[in-house]
Amino acid sequence: MSSANDIVLFHKQDITPDTFAAPAERQLSGSCQQAVEMHYSDPTGQFHAGLWSGGVGAWRVKYTECEFCTLLEGYVRMHGDDGSVIEIRAGQHFVIPAGFEGVWEVIEPARKTFAVFEEDRLARKD
User: Fold this and answer.
1) Which helix (H) or strand (E) holds 98?
2) Is the pLDDT of residue 85 over 80?
3) Which residues contact 96 (CB under 8 A, 6 or more apart)?
4) DSSP symbol at 82
5) Domain 17-117: which CATH number of 3.40.50.2300, 2.10.109.10, 2.60.120.10, 2.40.50.100
6) pTM for this prediction
7) Sequence-ordered list of residues with C-beta below 8 angstroms from that of 88, at least 6 positions apart, any chain
8) What is the pLDDT of residues 46-61, one digit of tens each?
9) Which pLDDT score, from 0 to 100, does residue 89 have?
Protein backbone atom coordinates (compact mmCIF):
# COMPACT_ATOMS: atom_id res chain seq x y z
CA MET A 1 0.00 0.00 0.00
CA SER A 2 1.27 3.49 -0.86
CA SER A 3 1.18 6.44 1.47
CA ALA A 4 1.14 10.21 1.05
CA ASN A 5 4.95 10.04 1.33
CA ASP A 6 4.97 8.18 -2.03
CA ILE A 7 3.32 11.09 -3.88
CA VAL A 8 5.77 12.74 -6.29
CA LEU A 9 5.87 16.54 -6.24
CA PHE A 10 7.75 17.81 -9.27
CA HIS A 11 8.88 21.04 -7.62
CA LYS A 12 10.39 19.11 -4.70
CA GLN A 13 12.86 17.23 -6.90
CA ASP A 14 16.24 18.47 -8.11
CA ILE A 15 16.63 16.73 -11.47
CA THR A 16 19.26 17.43 -14.10
CA PRO A 17 17.49 17.57 -17.47
CA ASP A 18 18.42 15.11 -20.21
CA THR A 19 19.07 17.30 -23.26
CA PHE A 20 18.95 16.09 -26.86
CA ALA A 21 17.77 16.91 -30.38
CA ALA A 22 15.36 14.93 -32.50
CA PRO A 23 17.28 12.41 -34.63
CA ALA A 24 18.65 14.09 -37.77
CA GLU A 25 16.56 11.93 -40.11
CA ARG A 26 13.35 13.19 -38.42
CA GLN A 27 14.26 16.91 -38.29
CA LEU A 28 12.34 19.18 -40.66
CA SER A 29 13.29 22.68 -39.45
CA GLY A 30 15.05 24.46 -36.59
CA SER A 31 17.47 22.89 -34.14
CA CYS A 32 14.85 20.56 -32.58
CA GLN A 33 16.56 20.94 -29.17
CA GLN A 34 14.67 19.33 -26.29
CA ALA A 35 15.08 18.59 -22.60
CA VAL A 36 13.33 16.09 -20.34
CA GLU A 37 13.20 15.98 -16.56
CA MET A 38 11.89 12.51 -15.67
CA HIS A 39 10.20 12.79 -12.29
CA TYR A 40 8.57 9.37 -12.07
CA SER A 41 8.71 5.94 -13.71
CA ASP A 42 6.66 3.06 -12.38
CA PRO A 43 8.25 -0.33 -11.61
CA THR A 44 6.84 -1.89 -14.83
CA GLY A 45 8.48 0.75 -17.03
CA GLN A 46 5.14 1.44 -18.72
CA PHE A 47 4.20 4.74 -17.01
CA HIS A 48 6.37 7.86 -16.86
CA ALA A 49 5.77 11.49 -15.86
CA GLY A 50 7.87 14.61 -15.98
CA LEU A 51 8.61 17.92 -17.63
CA TRP A 52 9.60 18.46 -21.27
CA SER A 53 10.83 21.61 -23.00
CA GLY A 54 11.64 22.28 -26.61
CA GLY A 55 13.03 25.03 -28.80
CA VAL A 56 11.64 26.28 -32.07
CA GLY A 57 11.68 23.60 -34.75
CA ALA A 58 9.71 20.80 -36.36
CA TRP A 59 10.30 17.05 -36.44
CA ARG A 60 8.44 13.87 -37.38
CA VAL A 61 6.87 11.84 -34.59
CA LYS A 62 5.31 8.39 -34.31
CA TYR A 63 3.61 7.67 -30.97
CA THR A 64 3.49 4.10 -29.69
CA GLU A 65 2.40 5.40 -26.28
CA CYS A 66 -0.55 7.46 -25.00
CA GLU A 67 0.53 10.82 -23.59
CA PHE A 68 -1.39 13.36 -21.48
CA CYS A 69 0.14 16.85 -21.45
CA THR A 70 -0.40 20.34 -20.11
CA LEU A 71 1.39 23.04 -22.07
CA LEU A 72 2.84 25.37 -19.44
CA GLU A 73 4.60 27.79 -21.80
CA GLY A 74 4.80 28.44 -25.51
CA TYR A 75 2.87 27.55 -28.61
CA VAL A 76 2.99 24.29 -30.59
CA ARG A 77 1.28 22.89 -33.65
CA MET A 78 0.63 19.21 -34.33
CA HIS A 79 0.25 18.13 -37.97
CA GLY A 80 -1.30 14.69 -38.50
CA ASP A 81 -0.26 12.65 -41.51
CA ASP A 82 -3.98 12.65 -42.40
CA GLY A 83 -3.80 16.42 -43.06
CA SER A 84 -5.26 17.48 -39.69
CA VAL A 85 -3.67 20.35 -37.75
CA ILE A 86 -4.20 21.41 -34.14
CA GLU A 87 -2.70 24.43 -32.40
CA ILE A 88 -1.95 24.24 -28.68
CA ARG A 89 -1.18 27.21 -26.47
CA ALA A 90 0.02 27.59 -22.89
CA GLY A 91 -2.64 26.53 -20.39
CA GLN A 92 -4.21 23.87 -22.61
CA HIS A 93 -4.41 20.18 -21.68
CA PHE A 94 -4.29 17.50 -24.39
CA VAL A 95 -3.85 13.79 -25.09
CA ILE A 96 -1.80 12.37 -27.93
CA PRO A 97 -3.14 8.86 -28.58
CA ALA A 98 -0.93 5.89 -29.39
CA GLY A 99 -0.73 5.57 -33.16
CA PHE A 100 -0.50 9.31 -33.91
CA GLU A 101 1.96 9.99 -36.73
CA GLY A 102 2.86 13.39 -38.04
CA VAL A 103 4.89 16.47 -37.18
CA TRP A 104 5.46 18.14 -33.81
CA GLU A 105 6.17 21.84 -34.48
CA VAL A 106 7.29 24.27 -31.78
CA ILE A 107 6.32 27.80 -32.87
CA GLU A 108 7.39 29.50 -29.61
CA PRO A 109 9.73 27.82 -27.08
CA ALA A 110 7.55 25.41 -25.13
CA ARG A 111 7.42 23.62 -21.78
CA LYS A 112 4.91 20.96 -20.74
CA THR A 113 4.16 18.42 -18.09
CA PHE A 114 3.59 14.93 -19.43
CA ALA A 115 2.31 11.56 -18.33
CA VAL A 116 3.02 8.69 -20.71
CA PHE A 117 1.61 5.18 -20.69
CA GLU A 118 2.86 2.54 -23.09
CA GLU A 119 1.15 -0.81 -23.27
CA ASP A 120 3.36 -3.77 -22.37
CA ARG A 121 4.94 -4.64 -25.72
CA LEU A 122 5.36 -8.28 -24.71
CA ALA A 123 1.64 -8.63 -24.01
CA ARG A 124 0.54 -6.64 -27.06
CA LYS A 125 -0.64 -8.55 -30.13
CA ASP A 126 0.56 -6.49 -33.13
Assistant:
1) none
2) yes
3) 63, 66, 67, 69, 78
4) T
5) 2.60.120.10
6) 0.88
7) 71, 75, 76, 77, 78, 94
8) 999 999 999 999 999 9
9) 98
